[in-house]
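Hi R.,

As promised on Friday, here is the backbone we talked about, encoded as structure tokens. Could you run it through your design pipeline when you get a chance and send me back a sequence?
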């Protein structure tokens, strides 16, 4: 229960973050921090239990009961350790945020302070408010899902939530952070794909989605090739999340985010997700040489590389970023050793790193607030920084000393433990190589830690002022909340070094969880006597001290590119080349010509059909195909086939656009008649209404186009004939081979026999759409809504100067040349000419709307449903539009979008309501006074609204006299009609004015 309380506290924070941010602004961090601490406190009893070596509790929530999938959460030492870090450091960061963000914009909890973003000292525009706390809470929830779950599927969900949330948090810093956010997203998603492949293989070969069962299975010894492949995939995922080479570049770029984001995500949370994954899968891979080699070599190599890069940086935050990459490399290498002592050392350093690194990040934010810069060169021009910020200096000194491994701090104990683990390698000469690499990495660590302290507080360049480069800036006071929230994590490492007894039991339990059967017993102490560890530490302090003393010459020597490229540049180049390759590939079909665009798709289909036919004839020909079902051929079908063929031939011959639309409608009507004759009234009625609406939309478009098609060239005509022949033959052969040769499927029989009993509905087609396959229908509704947006976007992007000059509107008047003035005026009298249609509308529109309501209501039991009802109602709306004497929109500009949105809201709301009695989109049935009602009726209403909104949008955009709302409209003359009541200008349908028509 306490396990779910901890996760529930994070979920509650996620729900409350947005309203609290709107009500309290930046002060919303206080109640959210209280929720984090409540979750932390709820986990403490369970943490004591599992850290004492006892089995943890398990909580299970049904997820996909039909497949036997449950969201299983388990309390075990590894996950509990990371959960406590996530909640504890998260609470401190939230408190820090209440004083960090801009006080002048209390309602904008996500606002980034103007002086904190790169490049150092520059000012950026404020980001949209309310985002920061919401995204932090979402990230925390995803992290807790990741570390507590025992389900492979939920593990991946949590992993991706952390990736998306970290991307969004970086993006809140505005446009300058966009490139960095995209690099973060691409790098972590690459690792996510590797993890997805690993999960699929583990699930497939172990036969279970339970992580504990999969890790304890025999597949790792029975399938060594699969084990090696999974180990590599997991390692790639770990490297991407923990910013190890070759994915190291994203973390320094992510420093574009606000300091609280860096302190939490990039020191204590998101990068620790990779560490957690490596530790979680260590029981399966600890004995795999490939796994150990990868982690040790990449980890220590990254540690040394990042240490050198850190010494190059003049932005303190960038320096901290590379120090994080370096320290994570140490932890990854220790995990790669694979022994219980090494994994315990990695856990201890993870704790120490979370404390001193989050504190140091926040302390850099304190320095930034006080001096308005993070640039080392600018800071050197500000004297008296220690005197102005004594607490910040002391905390930074303690935190940096802990990271450098100086006694008597927790960082010293954890570093000594890792050196002990490296020295325990039994790989002969390899052990000394690892120890040498660790020594170089430790020296680099000492050097950049010294640079942090000296650059932030000690170094002063008085010569700059003497040379007349401006007066030194003043150091401003900072909020005590900001200062002490940053100092506490850094200071905690000092007392922990003297009170390590409780940590021994924790490390014992951790080692037992990471290495099954471990008999490890931790004995943490500041002094273990003389040995190789203390020798290395002494050498590191001496050499590191000399490097710190010679920091200015070293700084000048490193102030140049060490390589002809960097990780971010390589990532951008790869992205650019992939984009260019995609553009080149898209050019094959990228054309405004429908024939060229569709031709590639049809050619692909023909190719696939040819391959299928060759395979079929190679395996026995038609004898392998089931025989045709009896009694399928009818004379009426042949008659309709002849009608369709004649209409298609007419379409190919005529050059009239209107004639083509009429013949195309004849094809559709013939198919509709065949559907009715086959006993499919639902499908037939739908096809009929689609044909009617399609014709109206076609004609609205044709008004702006020439009356006739251009005469095609001989080559284009020949290519069209060849393509048409291939497609026609392929479609015919495919129809003969693939259809009408099998009995009704078992699923079809089941639905026909059980639909009424399950749903209370007799209309199997409608019940399938709104109940059995409601999720598929919901996806189609979403596509429908996007189609509406696409229509608006395409029309808004069109320019008349790129189109063929339209003559459809003027053509009828041109034919009246030479006729009497009376005839021409009568033809242009739109008021009188629309009277018959208006009379029809007065009677037909109410009837159509009533029929639509009837079809909607009876759709569950008889032919009908929300889709057909919306089409019938759309026909009524189209008639109303056509009966008008001027081109006026049917509604306000935003109304169709609102209607589409309401449709999606109704459908999605019905799905969410399904959780009240079952799962997403599960319907509920009631019998009210003998009338069978279902929650799917509301879902069907959403279908109706989405379709109706799309038709309204199409008529509004295509039916106006001008091509689009914001296009190049002709100049309005004095006699132009005034705007309608709804604010849209009415465009007359004739060249004559109303005055002339009246005469």
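Update: got your reply. Pasting your designed sequence below so it's all in one thread:
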């Amino acid at each position: 229960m306490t396990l779910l309380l901890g996760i529930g506290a994070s979920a509650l924070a996620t729900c409350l973050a947005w309203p609290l941010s709107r009500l309290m602004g930046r002060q919303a961090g206080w109640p959210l921090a209280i929720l984090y601490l409540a979750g932390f406190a709820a986990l403490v009893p369970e943490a004591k239990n599992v850290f004492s070596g006892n089995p943890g509790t398990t909580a299970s929530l049904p997820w996909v009961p039909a497949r036997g999938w449950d969201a299983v959460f388990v309390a075990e030492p590894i996950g509990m350790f990371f959960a406590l870090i996530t909640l504890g450091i998260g609470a401190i960061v939230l408190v820090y945020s209440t004083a960090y963000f801009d006080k002048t914009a209390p309602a904008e909890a996500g606002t980034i302070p103007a002086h904190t973003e790169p490049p150092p000292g520059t000012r950026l525009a404020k980001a949209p408010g309310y985002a920061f706390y919401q995204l932090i809470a979402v990230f925390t929830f995803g992290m807790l899902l990741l570390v507590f779950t025992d389900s492979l599927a939920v593990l991946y969900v949590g992993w991706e939530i952390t990736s998306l949330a970290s991307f969004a948090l970086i993006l809140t810093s505005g446009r300058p952070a966009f490139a960095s956010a995209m690099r973060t997203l691409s790098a972590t998603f690459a690792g996510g794909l590797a993890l997805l492949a690993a999960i699929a293989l583990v699930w497939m070969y172990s036969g279970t989605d339970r992580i504990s069962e999969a890790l304890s299975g025999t597949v790792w010894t029975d399938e060594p090739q699969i084990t090696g492949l999974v180990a590599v995939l997991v390692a790639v995922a770990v490297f991407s999340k923990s910013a190890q080479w070759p994915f190291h570049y994203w973390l320094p770029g992510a420093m574009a985010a606000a300091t609280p984001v860096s302190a939490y995500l990039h020191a204590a949370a998101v990068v620790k997700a990779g560490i957690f994954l490596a530790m979680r899968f260590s029981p399966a891979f600890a004995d795999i040489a490939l796994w150990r080699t990868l982690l040790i070599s990449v980890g220590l190599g990254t540690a040394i590389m990042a240490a050198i890069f850190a010494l190059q940086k003049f932005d303190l935050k960038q320096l901290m970023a590379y120090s994080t990459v370096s320290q994570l490399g140490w932890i990854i290498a220790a995990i790669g050793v694979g022994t219980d002592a090494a994994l315990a050392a990695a856990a201890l350093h993870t704790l120490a790193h979370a404390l001193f690194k989050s504190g140091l990040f926040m302390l850099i934010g304190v320095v930034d607030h006080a001096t308005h810069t993070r640039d080392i060169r600018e800071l050197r021009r500000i004297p008296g920084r220690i005197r102005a910020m004594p607490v910040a200096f002391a905390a930074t000194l303690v935190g940096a000393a802990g990271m450098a491994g100086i006694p008597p701090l927790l960082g010293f104990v954890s570093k000594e433990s890792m050196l002990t683990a490296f020295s325990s390698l039994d790989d002969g000469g390899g052990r000394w190589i690892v120890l040498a690499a660790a020594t170089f990495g430790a020296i680099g660590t000492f050097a950049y830690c010294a640079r942090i302290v000296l650059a932030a507080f000690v170094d002063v360049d008085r010569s700059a002022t003497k040379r007349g480069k401006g007066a030194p800036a003043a150091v401003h006071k900072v909020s005590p909340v900001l200062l002490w929230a940053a100092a506490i994590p850094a200071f905690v490492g000092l007392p922990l070094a003297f009170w390590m007894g409780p940590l021994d039991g924790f490390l014992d339990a951790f080692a037992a969880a990471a290495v099954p059967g471990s008999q490890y017993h931790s004995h943490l102490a500041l002094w273990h006597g003389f040995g190789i560890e203390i020798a290395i530490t002494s050498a590191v302090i001496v050499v590191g001290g000399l490097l710190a003393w010679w920091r200015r010459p070293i700084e000048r020597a490193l102030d140049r590119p060490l390589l002809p490229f960097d990780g971010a540049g390589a990532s951008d180049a790869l992205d650019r080349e992939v984009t260019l390759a995609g553009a080149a590939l898209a050019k094959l079909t990228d054309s405004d010509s429908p024939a060229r665009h569709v031709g590639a798709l049809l050619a692909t289909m023909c190719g696939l059909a040819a391959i299928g036919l060759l395979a079929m004839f190679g395996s026995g020909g038609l004898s392998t195909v089931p025989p045709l079902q009896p009694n399928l051929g009818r004379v009426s079908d042949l008659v309709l086939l002849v009608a369709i063929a004649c209409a298609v031939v007419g379409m190919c011959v005529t050059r009239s656009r209107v004639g083509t639309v009429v013949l195309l409608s004849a094809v559709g009507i013939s198919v509709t008649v065949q559907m009715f004759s086959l006993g499919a009234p639902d499908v037939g009625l739908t096809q009929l209404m689609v044909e009617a609406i399609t014709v109206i939309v076609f004609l609205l478009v044709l008004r702006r186009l020439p009356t006739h098609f251009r005469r095609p060239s001989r080559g284009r005509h020949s290519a069209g004939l060849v393509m048409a022949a291939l497609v026609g033959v392929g479609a015919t052969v495919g129809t003969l081979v693939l259809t009408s040769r099998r009995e009704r499927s078992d699923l079809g029989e089941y639905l026909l026999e059980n639909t009424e009993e399950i749903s209370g509905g007799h209309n199997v087609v409608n019940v399938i759409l709104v109940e059995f396959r409601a999720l598929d229908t919901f996806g189609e509704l979403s596509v429908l809504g996007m189609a509406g947006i696409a229509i608006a976007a395409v029309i808004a992007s069109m320019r008349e100067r790129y189109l063929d000059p339209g003559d459809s509107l003027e053509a009828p008047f041109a034919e009246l040349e030479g006729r009497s003035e009376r005839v021409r005026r009568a033809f242009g009298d739109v008021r009188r000419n629309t009277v018959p249609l208006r009379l029809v509308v007065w009677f037909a529109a109410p009837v159509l709307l009533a029929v639509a309501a009837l079809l909607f209501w009876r759709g569950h039991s008889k032919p009908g449903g929300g889709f057909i009802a919306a089409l019938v109602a759309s026909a009524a709306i189209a008639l109303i539009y056509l009966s008008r004497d001027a081109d006026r929109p049917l509604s306000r500009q935003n109304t169709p979008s609102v209607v589409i949105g309401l449709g999606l809201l109704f459908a999605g709301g019905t799905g969410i309501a399904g959780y009240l009695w079952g799962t997403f989109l599960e319907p509920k049935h009631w019998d009210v006074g003998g009338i069978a009602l279902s929650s799917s009726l509301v879902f069907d209403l959403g279908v109706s609204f989405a379709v109706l909104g799309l038709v309204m949008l199409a008529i509004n955009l295509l039916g106006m006299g001008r091509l689009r709302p914001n296009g190049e409209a002709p100049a309005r003359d004095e006699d132009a009609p005034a705007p309608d009541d709804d604010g849209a200008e009415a465009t007359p349908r004739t060249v004559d004015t109303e005055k002339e028509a009246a005469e």
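One thing I noticed while checking it: Residues 340-371 form the longest helix (32 residues).

Thanks again,
M.
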